[in-house]
Structure formats: C-alpha cells, structure tokens
Amino acid sequence: MKQKKLFVTGISTDVGKTVASAILVEALQADYWKPVQAGDLHYSDTHKVQELISNNQSIFYPNSYALNTPMSPHESARLDGVEIQLDQIKEPTTDNHLIIEGAGGLLVPLNDSDTILDLIQSDYKVVVVSRHYLGSINHTLLTIKLLREKGFEVVLIYSGDEHKSTELIIEKMTGVEVIGRIEDEPYFDKNVIKEYAQKFRSKL
Questions:
Q1: For the domain that residue 32 is a member of, what is the CATH number?
Q2: What do we know about how this protein assembles, alone or with others (predicted)?
C-alpha cells in the first residue's frame, strides 16, 4: 500500500474542513491528526471526526498543542502561557494513510514567525476546502496559488450549495482537480459520511 498523506486546509474558518476530513478518513480508512486545536477541547475536531466515521481501522492521534481559547493559535497559546514551536509538532508514525487537519487558512499564525503553511510537509497532498461567500474566489485563488508556488500538489473540495459562476472561474484560472462537493446537508452522521466517502474514494 502506497501511503497517502492529505493535509486539509480551508480558504477561511468554518468552511467545512472537519466534515471533509471525516469523509477522507472514512474513504481511506486513514488515521487522523490535528496538530493544533484552539478551543472546544471537550468536543474538539478530533472528537467530531471520531463520531462521524464507521470503520474500526482509523487511529486518532493527540494534538501537539491543545489550546483553551477559540482564537488564532498564536494568541490562544499566549493566553495559555505557551509558545508554539514547530519542532514540538511531530507527525505521528504510522504505516496507514494519514489525514492531517489544519486550523483556519494557510497564513493563520502559530507564533511570531510561523503559520499553518509551515506544518505542510513536502510529501503531503493538500486538500483545499472552498465554500462560496463574497470574497471566496479571491481566497480560493490565493490559497491555491501559494500552495503551488511552494510546490505542493493541490486538489479542491467544495462545501455548500453550488455556485456555478464562482466555481467555473476558479477552475478556469487554476485547472485544479475537484474531488467533489459536500452539500449543505440537514445533518451529518456516520451514514451520510459513509455515502460521501464512497463518492470521493476513487478521486483520492
């Protein structure tokens, strides 16, 4: 089995990264790791993904930094009296596929000099989650452009209702491969995640 490592980032916050991560975990029966969690420690993104998957192969690794306040990690860390250091963020060792979930967008600060982008390793494929809102074309194009300038392979997942003109221009200007769309479902549970996993699997 050729190991796949997919880093899930968003064009902004609250665009659907965690649901996308759960679908990818289920599709590949992959392990999951969120290096930095800021806030909601009692019901973190790791807890949410665990709740949404059905397979019993996936292993969930602890956050390298679990911060108490739902803010940018650099400030959340400051409030906790710690400083995030990249050398303390070590990818877990596994032979399985691995889904890594970022926090917010690429340039969210971790400290005074490092951002989420600095967590992305050269062997990761990056899954960008894009959701339509005023300004989302710019945010999507900037995200893809920066990742490609850094040499990463990039694919896209749309989250939410279709917006044809937005998606058409993004795809024309980038030529990015689209894995699929996660609709605005009334709810997400194991069955819904499993259905999306089956749809997306062949594109991964």
A1: 3.40.50.300
A2: Homodimer.
